Amino acid sequence: MGHATGEIEALAVRVRLARESVEARRVALARYALVWWEGEAADRYRELVDERRAGLARLADELGWLEESVVALAAVARAEGAADPVREAS
Amino acid sequence: MSRVSVRSEALAAVAARLTEAAELLREDAALLAAAVQRCRSPDLIRRPGLLGSWLRVEADGVRLTGPTGLWGAALGLEVLAARLSVTARAYVEVERAVTAVLDGVHRGAVTAARAGLLTDGPRGVDVRPVPVDRAVPSPAGPADLVALGEGLDGGRVRVVELDDGAGGSAWVVAVPGTQQWSPRAGDNPFDATSDVRAVTGDATLAAAGVVAALDRARAASGRARPDDPVLLVGHSQGGIHAAALAADPGFTRTHHVTHVLTTGAPVGVFAVPETVRVLSVEHADDPVPTLDLTPNPATPSWLTVRAGAGPPVDVRRHALSGYERTVRAAEDAPAGAVPGLAAWEVSAAAFLHRPVRGVTEVAVTRSAGGAARLGRVRPSGVRAPP
After folding, report:
1. Looking at residue B326, what is its pLDDT?
2. Which residues of A touch B17 (CB under 8 A)?
3. Statement to judge: residues B215 and B276 lie in one domain
4. Pair (B131, B178) in one structural domain
5. Is B77 within 8 Å of chain A by CB?
6. Cα separation of A79 and A5, whole Å?
7. B113, part of any domain
8. Which InterPro entries did the record assign (chain B) (predicted)?
9. Which of the residues A13, B149, B310, B370 could staple to B124 if both were Cys, CB 3.0 to 4.6 A apart?
10. Under an 8 A CB cutoff, do A17 and B18 touch?
């Protein structure tokens, strides 16, 4: 496997780990809603938690799409490397 | 003064977790940025078949590590954490005020004691067996445990020995609520004196009577073992004694308290260890559970079920029978309607649907003499910050 292909595949793994991490934070945030806390400050806090959760969900989606792009790029790089082993090995 | 609506320690703990989550996201961002950087090899740029796709991936990668991506998400969590920290500091001030109020009540009781009021005085405690005048069926749920508090007039404490299903016994101790309202201590220790003394952290003859009742029942059984599980159930003042005993290392060293069930009781000030599963039931409009000005801890081991609505001003809502109906309704509600209740019941399996091995009742009274040396069990649920 060539240097470029290896790094792109490593990037795909890193993007996947980042997506999983974001998803884990989003799930954890649901546990921090402090449902037993009452009052205006509590309501505002929960609104902010909801906003952050929605933001993390969007971010996880985008990281998922990036992961797909990187995986596709790695596949192309692998195919090109197979077709031109001299350059891939350089 | 209104009741503190949340504990600063809970807010501060969540703020710390949010900060930690933000740091992890920032680490992810750094690792992702480095991975993108490593891909920028001359070899990749020289390959026209890859270059266009790579540039798009690179742009997205950089964007998703930046302010609109992982860094931005981390910052959002940090802002949330900062907001909670500020709120927590505000609540610390309120909690200091609450502590001061409770200390004031205690000082007031000490002053009153000089006039012979609100004090157990130089008296001991007598525990006298009395006939059990009712059948006690096997408890099927928390409502049946609450019902064990019915008919405990005259300072009676009821102890039920159950077959725990594992060859041993499980013990349920039902503690009565306030029965005498005179500020001058009489023979019945379940009175206003014990109310004030117990909620401000003093050991009381009433609690000593509860301990004696349990020890007497265990000794009479002949089957008791040190590790037998114990459930303390109490309404109003009975709940205070239950929580205070569960928070008292001197008691738990020799009694394996696993569960506490309180109804209509101000118990938020007691630092019950998390090894004890507590179920506290409060009517929102009953003023008594708010008397300690402190909410119950929001921990996995402490389930507080608040029923009803409205300000805490209706003393009729304090009756034990009403609480019994509330708990029964909660039990009969569809699964999940009362979050945590089913889990509490599962944890209390040693006490539910188990055959009754025996029931004993004693009448607890202040004795005429024999000064009891009682210590002080400082409630530590509300602490001044360091």
Report:
1. 95
2. 28, 32
3. yes
4. yes
5. yes
6. 10
7. no
8. AB_hydrolase_fold
9. B370
10. no
CB–CB of A29 and B21 under 8 A? yes
Question: Nearest C-alpha of chain B: how many angstroms from A53?
Answer: 10
| Contact pairs from chain A to chain B, CB under 8 Å | 128
Residue B94 DSSP symbol: H
ipTM: 0.87
**Residue the block writes with tokens 């503190």:** B4
State the Cα torsion A72-A73-A78-A81 to the nearest 10°. 150
Q: Is residue B174 situated within a structural domain?
A: yes
Specify the amino acid at residue B364. V
- DSSP class of B292: T
In this structure, are B81 and B145 located in the same domain?
no
Asked whether residue B52 falls in the same domain as residue B172, the answer is no
Containing domain of residue B86, as a range?
A: 8-92
CA angle A17, A19, A25 (to 5 degrees): 100
Give the residue, A72 or B299, on which the prediction is more confident. A72
Q: Closest by alpha carbon to B11, among B89, B96, B76?
A: B89
Q: List domains and CATH numbers for chain A.
A: 3-89 (1.10.287)
A73–chain B nearest CA distance, Å = 7
Shortest distance between the Cα of B269 and any Cα of chain A, in A, equals 17
B134, B247: one domain: yes
Q: Are residues B259 and B174 in the same domain?
A: yes
Q: Which residues of A make CB contacts under 8 Å with B?
A: 2-4, 7-8, 10-11, 14-15, 17-18, 21-22, 25, 28-29, 32, 34, 36-39, 41-42, 45, 48-49, 51-52, 55-56, 59, 62-63, 65-66, 69-70, 72-73, 76-77, 80, 87, 90
Pick from B11, B31, B76: which is nearest to A14 by CB? Answer: B31
Q: Is B43 among the domain residues?
A: yes
- CA B204, B206, B209, B211 torsion-angle sign: negative
Mean pLDDT of chain B: 83
Residue B97 located in a structural domain: no
Q: pTM for the whole thing?
A: 0.63
CA distance B288 to chain A (A): 19
What DSSP assignment string belongs to B40-85?
--HHHHT-HHHHHHHHHHHHHHHHHHSTTTHHHHHHHHHHHHHHHH
Strands B256-263 and B169-175: unpaired
Record: contact A15-B295, CB cut-off 8 A: no
pLDDT in tens, B172-201: 999 998 877 766 677 888 887 777 777 777
A39–chain B nearest CA distance, Å = 8
Residue B177 CA to residue B162 CA, distance in Å, equals: 23
Domains held by chain B: number: 2
